[in-house]
Amino acid sequence: MRAIWKGSISFGLVNIPVGLYSATRPASEIKFRMLRESDNSPVKYKRIAEADEREVPWEHIVKGYEFEKGNFVVLTEEDFEHVNIKSNQTVDIKEFVALDEIDPMFFDQPYFLAPEKGGDKAYGLLREALQRSNKVGIAKVVVRTREHIAAVKPLGNALVLELMHFADELADPKSLRLPASEPGKKEMTMAESLIETMSGKWEPEKYKDEYRAALMKVIEEKIAAGGKTLPAPKARAAKPTNVVDLVEVLKQSLAESKKGGARNAKGESKASANVRHMKHRKAA
């Protein structure tokens, strides 16, 4: 695995030489090309200059900041090197906080931190201290030309650097239309029973991208048909009504869950899916 950058973790007077590594893989997406409808000719996207409508080669493109309408200042790679702050090549830990105090909404992108030469002992010490205290280090770090707030967390034998959102980057849910009424006691009791009945151990491996597999099947069928329009798919279920008898649907859900009823791709029972579909229909 190739390091994104090599620097250090810094807290107090301690410096631990580390490398930063990607902790995720790109999602396996089915890629599509944009085509002209009349002859399936691929559509190209060109970089066109506004001044004369001429195409610009990559080697003649520079980065510019528009400081006022129509006026730009160009920044070179040397200019970016002048941004000389501690977090450029350092995971600069500012404080340690309890992990359960942080809203999960703040977390964004994880990276692995691995010790470089001479850093094993201090790396292991920080990892064990974080595990025992159930705290994380809140740090400032620059990744891909942007400064982030980040959390240094233990994960097994590794330390993870998880990039976080700044507070002003999170949208305020107060702008949404959210229900304020209290649910009925009977409904709440049944909903809690349903949650308890459907509770299980978190096993991420059992969740697969079923949409991708189904889409690939459609693609293969269309290739086999020579690109012709495929027959209309069979209807999956009857249209739900606009009226939601929540208690009745919860009863059905509980009965189905207790006897190990079938689950859909999202891990929900048919009755649970009915609640979701009914609510969506009612909202519409």
Polypeptide structure, described:
With 284 residues, the chain is of the alpha+beta class. The chain has helices at 77-81, 120-133, 185-197, 210-224, 246-258, 270-283, and strands at residues 5-11, 14-22, 63-68, 71-75, 90-98, 107-115, 135-143, 146-155, 158-164. It folds into 2 domains: 5-26 and 82-168, Ku70, Chain: A, Domain 2, CATH 2.40.290.10; 185-198 and 205-283, no CATH class. It has a 7-stranded mixed beta barrel with strand order 1-2-6-9-8-7-5. It is extended, with a radius of gyration of 27 Å.
Topology:
Blueprint: E1 5-11, E2 14-22, E3 63-68, E4 71-75, H1 77-81, E5 90-98, E6 107-115, H2 120-133, E7 135-143, E8 146-155, E9 158-164, H3 185-197, H4 210-224, H5 246-258, H6 270-283
Parallel strand pairs: 1-5
Antiparallel strand pairs: 1-2, 2-6, 3-4, 5-7, 6-9, 7-8, 8-9
